[in-house]
Specification:
This protein is an alpha+beta fold and 639 residues long. The protein has 19 helices and 28 strands.
Length: 639
């Protein structure tokens, strides 16, 4: 017996070491960075906006400029004129986020303007190859768009690359500050302009890849583990810097010759650092940022310049510090789970997780330090579940391992659903969900939008069991992050975009979302592939509420229709999943929609709770002894 016990302990020890080793590997290799980016973006969006340096301005080649000057790209004579206008106004630096890789009309005029100004930075584009030398070093295989010789000669050392590398989810969070090509280091154009402003030449800097760029004795530009520089966006597009129209500057400069009233006072550009770039609709140089779906590349460059000049950097803790924090949090979770009573353990862990999230956010907002959140939270939950499971098995010794896992999964799933319904006027809400297995894929939520309006969401995930339950939890989380939009179709659109972008499980969800306003007696709703909502009017008339457009969520990008319905007091709305209409009896006959509509006609005088119970009883009586094969959820709202 002793030998068996020793062998068991050894086996568990080996498995434990392997498990911890796997967790360490995932942490160090940052396998879950795609999810970590979401937590980073959330901290970004919640961070108070900062106004960038006053002397940084953005000159936009927007729709107005293209409509007035003609098809893009413009004649380079216009660019030459812009340089003269800005230079004569006292602009300190002009940085172009527009590359000139082919000879065209106006090159001579542009070259002359660049030469006379002496403060113009011109870009080129590298063909980057990160696979060479590993992730710690950025190499180029050649030029994707090289600056023409005529402009290169007059720009001198004021040239640099403008490559922007989106992360795996397409968002721009970082740029390579330097690139090696043919054993020579080349600067990113904005980094070069900022270094020159600080009084440094690029040849004077010392670069320690995957760590930092050292300027002189006391100025350090921190780099991420892949030798990239994190972009510190001060605020959303349009709020961080001063913006001016390209064509308005030209018109104001030429106003004396044209006899027109100048639109701008060009004295505003005195001492300014001007970033010139394309921002017109459908511009190929616009990328998603952590704060919004599209952020023009010229804004990225202005943000980089602003961060370097103000020494306001974002710094992600290195892998070893994050690993240390990870182990510390595991220890805390382990001790608390072991020492806490069963009823208080989960509450304690939720409190620990909440504190960790809050502290990470405050550190980011106050210091710019990015502490990993997603992986520590996931592993804390895993550690908690493992320890709680071990305690449970030790205490009961009667239940099988799979039963415990499903019980925990069901508890977690139910924790995503509302425990109490909002109390709003005379609205009466009741809901009942019966899962076909211990965990299911049906979901619902009831949220209070303001003192007069609530939102009702009900959905059904494809598939069954644990995968559906996990996806259900994901959908509820996405809904909670999206419902503050008052328009149901916008809520469904935002949810669908996020589920499509972040999910690779092959699952999808049908969903209905409707808002009720007790002040206007109206409801707005949108449907994503779900069954119509049944409306029972006070006179007993039954109507099916549906929309023209609405695909299931999580499949493909799509738009959604929205309808507004003015209801009469006493009306009843029935939301349900297909487990109701597809419930089968022993003869494999379905309950079907017609039977549900006929039943609905007899519910008008009932309370919401009685109506829910009546529908569930009718389905149960119809199915008889047949096994329930799908989740059954009914939610009734009586107004």
């Amino acid at each position: 017996m002793a030998n068996k016990i020793d062998k068991t302990k050894i086996a568990y020890s080996v498995l434990g070491i392997l498990f911890i080793g796997v967790l360490f590997f995932f942490s160090h290799s940052r396998v879950f960075d795609e999810f970590e980016y979401s937590t980073f973006d959330l901290r970004y969006r919640l961070r108070p906006a900062n106004m960038g340096e006053r002397n940084i301005v953005i000159v936009e080649v927007g729709d107005d400029s293209i409509s007035k000057l003609g098809q893009w790209p413009f004649s380079r004579k216009y660019h030459a004129l812009l340089i003269k206008a800005l230079n004569s106004s006292g602009a300190e630096t002009i940085v172009f986020d527009i590359f000139f890789s082919e000879k065209k009309e106006g090159d001579d005029a542009l070259a002359e303007a660049v030469s006379e100004a002496g403060n113009v930075y011109l870009p080129y584009v590298f063909d980057l190859n990160r696979s060479r030398g590993g992730r710690d070093h950025v190499h180029a295989d050649g030029y994707a768009a090289q600056l023409i010789d005529k402009l290169k000669n007059v720009a001198g050392e004021k040239i640099g690359f403008i490559n922007i590398e989106p992360d795996i989810d397409g968002k721009v969070r970082r740029i390579p500050p330097v690139v090696e090509y043919d054993n020579v280091l080349y600067p990113q154009i904005t980094v070069l302009a900022a270094l020159n402003k600080l009084g440094y030449k690029f040849s004077e800097i010392r670069t320690k890849f995957a760590d930092k760029i050292v300027l002189g004795q006391d100025h350090i530009i921190p780099l991420d583990y892949d030798s990239s520089l994190l972009v510190n966006y001060p605020a959303v597009w349009g709020k961080a810097f001063r913006h001016y129209s390209y064509v308005d500057i030209l018109q104001s400069y030429l106003s004396d010759m044209t006899g027109q009233e100048p639109i701008l006072d060009l004295k505003e550009f005195e001492g300014a650092v001007c970033f010139v770039g394309l921002t017109a609709t459908a511009s190929p140089d616009a990328h998603p940022s952590p704060m919004e779906p599209l952020y023009p590349g010229v804004g990225v460059h202005a943000s980089i310049y602003n961060g370097i000049l103000s020494s306001d950097y974002l710094v992600r803790l290195n892998k070893w510090w994050n690993l240390f924090i990870l182990v510390a949090m595991w220890f805390i979770v382990g001790v608390v789970t072991q020492k806490s009573r069963k009823r208080f353990a989960l509450l304690s862990i939720v409190l620990i997780i909440s504190i960790y999230i809050l502290v990470s956010a405050v550190i980011f907002w106050s210091t710019g330090i990015w502490v990993d959140v997603f992986y520590p939270l996931i592993t804390m939950v895993v550690i908690y579940v493992i320890i709680a499971f071990k305690k449970y098995v030790t205490e009961t010794q009667k239940r099988e391992l799979i039963e415990k896992e499903l019980d925990i999964a069901k508890d977690i799933q139910l924790s995503f659903l509302p425990k109490e319904m909002p109390n709003l006027g005379k609205i009466d809400i009741a809901v009942k969900m019966l899962t076909a297995r211990q965990v299911g894929g049906d979901l619902y939520d009831v949220v209070q939008l303001d003192e007069n309006e609530i939102g009702i969401m009900l959905g059904d995930v494809s598939g069954k069991g644990v995968p559906a339950a996990l996806y259900m939890a994901r959908v509820v989380s996405v809904f909670k992050a999206s419902y503050k939009e008052k328009s149901p179709k916008v809520v469904l659109k935002n949810m669908n975009d996020r589920l499509v972008a972040e999910s690779n499980s092959g699952l999808f969800v049908t969903l209905t979302y409707m808002t009720f306003n007790v002040k206007t007696n109206s409801g707005r709703f949108a449907i994503g592939g779900h069954m119509p909502t049944i409306l029972i009017e006070p006179d007993g008339n039954v109507e099916m509420l549906d929309v023209e457009e609405g695909m299931p969520l999580g499949m493909i990008e799509s738009d959604f229709s929205e309808r507004v319905y003015e209801y009469r007091p006493g009306s009843m709305f029935i939301f349900y999943t297909d487990g109701v209409t597809e419930a089968m009896n022993v003869k494999e006959e379905m309950f079907e929609e017609d039977r549900l509509v006929e039943l609905a006609g007899r519910l008008k005088d009932m309370s919401a709770r009685d109506a829910v119970d009546t529908i569930h009883k009718a389905v149960s009586d119809f199915a008889g002894k047949a096994k329930q094969h799908d989740d059954i959820t009914v939610l009734v709202v009586k107004v």
